[in-house]
Design goal:
With about 300 residues, the first copy, chain A, is of the alpha/beta class. Chain A has 2 domains: about 5-175, NAD(P)-binding Rossmann-like Domain (Rossmann fold, 3-Layer(aba) Sandwich), CATH 3.40.50.720; about 180-290, 6-phosphogluconate dehydrogenase C-terminal like domain (6-phosphogluconate dehydrogenase C-terminal fold, Orthogonal Bundle), CATH 1.10.3660.10. In chain A, about 50% of the residues lie in helices and about 15% in strands. Chain A is built from 10 helices and 8 strands. Chain A has helices spanning about 15-25, 40-50, 75-85, 100-110, 155-165, 175-210, 225-230, 235-245, 250-270, 275-290; strands at about 5-10, 30-35, 55, 65-70, 95, 120-125, 145-150, 170-175. An 8-stranded mixed β-sheet of chain A has the order 3-2-1-4-5-6-7-8, sandwiched between helices. In chain A, helix 3 runs parallel beside helix 4, helix 6 (about 175-210) crosses helix 9 and helix 9 (about 250-270) packs antiparallel against helix 10. The longest helix of chain A is centred in the middle third of the chain and has 35 residues, at about 175-210. Chains A and B meet through helix 6, helix 7, helix 8, helix 9 and helix 10 of A and helix 6, helix 7, helix 8, helix 9 and helix 10 of B.
Chain lengths: ~300, ~300
């Protein structure tokens, strides 16, 4: 028997929630989709683009559904799960798409009724664009989606969420919430911290130099590499603040490891140690090559 | 009277030296070009691609020239200038294209004969590609070239180098070598340090996790943002080692400013201070917007 959810609620109709609705409909996985959100213009976009059959700003008007997808900033998940608990039919499957898993899974399991299983998921896809207008049905093709069942997750619920993501084109990797959070701290969250910190320190330097009427205003000499390194600082501040706060322990460990590496290179430069710099850069290049070609 | 150099030597026929030769010939600025280098295959590429009319691996065979362009890794400039001193005719104009200026200008002025004026230049253009094969005549169009005359520079020499870069399509900015080095430490050299340090710390983490047989190997979950942030670590190690060592004071100051910003964000995350994180990310975003649109 093939997977199908006749009635689906997408709570938060942004890039990810909207794209999952489009992809699920295209794959024949979803029947009616109700979009839940607070931004009236965005909900209108969602109806216009065929993401949702109907929309509401009130969870009480959502009606009975088979699947509820929470697609909101991470720390909002707890409040949404609490509100959902009052409106879900027993047996409703609940999932999310957040970038942090331990905090979300703990909150959802604590807030949702026992008869409504929760399975955390994190599709590693997206762009700097936001909102229902940016959603597209092929966003998850050739992407990786991490699914994070826990000991209490009913196997049928886990299987359904794994199949859902496979059917919209993602390669599913299962891991524990803690494993996910440690890995993503390295591959995503740390990079955002560094990009924001670089933009912040550049801003301070540019401001200082401007005060001195220095003709060498640093930003005027910026090229493609600086735009590339600060691109991640162009993302949604509230979304990233939530990620930093809910994955704080794993993230702090990566920041400390990075800071130790930076200090090692700083020290080699300070003492003019060409051999130590060469070794450091060679090791970095080797990892760069693994990132470029992981096979 | 329009600028023209009947005989030009390009010492180091790589991406930048080769592109300047192609651009200068296309603009009618250069007559005969002799390419000087150590890699026979690269010199053959330079002849095949019309970059140089003839090539040699020996500065003694360069012959008399009107203009000598030094386009080698920064720390090699001193030895090249010393060797050049034995072979230049009085009146030969000498310039370079290096990413660090104070160290290069000091070394060149010290090594070259008094009758051979030196004007430092740094075209801010390029790519991760290297060698004569990567050279192209339009590399400098719409780029910025910093020219760094000093008090002892003859005005006619400065004017010639400014015009040279303008005629190949660059917008010229004049500043002192020290101003250049402080600005580039921010806009280029720091970014390379951070990219190498990120690659280095990721490599250590990936190695550790692999030893633990952890299924969540961090590199397997890397996406576009990690490739982007570590791209600069794919550059030439010897070239960047030279830049780090010759611009060490300015670079160390930027590393320390960055480290202070990183520590500020780390501390806000550690104490769960959402308001402080919001302020930090807002300031970073504002600078990111200035970088994206400097007007």
């Amino acid at each position: 028997m093939s997977l199908r959810f006749e009635r689906v609620a997408v709570i938060g109709v942004g890039l990810i929630g909207g794209s999952l609705a489009l992809a699920g409909r295209r794959a024949g996985l979803f029947g009616e989709v109700v979009g839940v959100g607070r931004n009236a213009a965005n909900l209108e976009d969602a109806r216009d683009r065929g993401i949702a059959d109907r929309t509401t700003s009130d969870l009480a008007e959502m009606g009975p559904v088979d699947l509820a997808v929470i697609a909101v900033p991470v720390r909002t998940t707890a409040a949404i799960a609490r509100d959902l608990a009052a409106h879900l039919q027993p047996g409703t499957l609940v999932t999310d798409v957040g970038s942090v898993k331990q905090w979300v899974v703990d909150a959802a399991v604590a807030e949702l009724p026992a008869g409504c299983p929760f399975v955390g998921a994190h599709p590693i896809a997206g762009s700097e664009q936001t909102g229902a207008r940016a959603a597209r049905a092929n966003l998850f093709e050739d992407s990786v989606c991490v699914v994070t069942p826990v000991d209490s997750t009913p196997p049928a619920a886990r299987d359904a969420i794994v199949e859902l993501w496979q059917r919209v084109g993602a390669r599913v990797r299962e891991m524990t919430p803690a494993e996910h959070d440690r890995a993503l701290a390295w591959t995503s969250h740390l990079g955002h911290v560094l990009s924001y910190a670089l933009a912040r320190s550049l801003g301070a330097a540019a401001g200082e130099r401007r005060d001195e009427r220095d003709p060498g205003d640093v930003l005027a000499l910026s090229g493609p590499s600086l735009r590339e390194l600060t691109r991640l600082a162009g993302g949604s501040g509230p979304m990233w603040r939530d990620i930093f706060l809910t994955n704080d322990r794993a993230l702090l460990a990566t920041i400390d490891s990075f800071a130790a590496a930076l200090d090692e290179l700083r020290s080699a430069i300070d003492r003019g140690d060409a051999a130590a710099i060469d070794t450091f850069l060679d090791l970095g290049l080797a990892t760069r090559r693994r990132i470029e070609d992981p096979s």
